[in-house]
Write a structure and sequence with these properties.
The longest helix has 8 residues. This protein is an alpha+beta fold and 85 residues long. It contains two helices and five strands.
């Protein structure tokens, strides 16, 4: 079955489609897609993942045509006008 894996950074965005076995997990799809070659900074132990915008675990099974998303951590930038908590 076909699934897609997406990841976006300030450097660029990646959308890779791959053919996986039925019952494939999110982790397996990410690894099989090859996206980790393009974005070696991805840490699957620390970063969240989702399918079509819904958070899932790495061992979640996929269905045909699912879009796996790897989320970057959000970073809050404090400027001079912000109060420090």
């Amino acid at each position: 079955m076909k699934v897609g894996v997406a990841y976006v950074t300030a450097r660029g965005q990646w959308w890779l489609e791959c053919e996986v076995e039925s019952g494939c997990t999110v982790r397996q799809a990410i690894e099989q897609s090859g996206i980790l070659r393009y974005a070696p900074e991805v840490d699957l132990q620390a970063q969240r993942v989702g399918v079509f915008g819904k958070l899932v675990k790495l061992d979640a099974p996929l269905q045909a045509n699912d879009r796996v998303e790897i989320y970057r951590p959000l970073i809050r930038c404090v400027d001079e006008d912000d109060e420090e908590d």
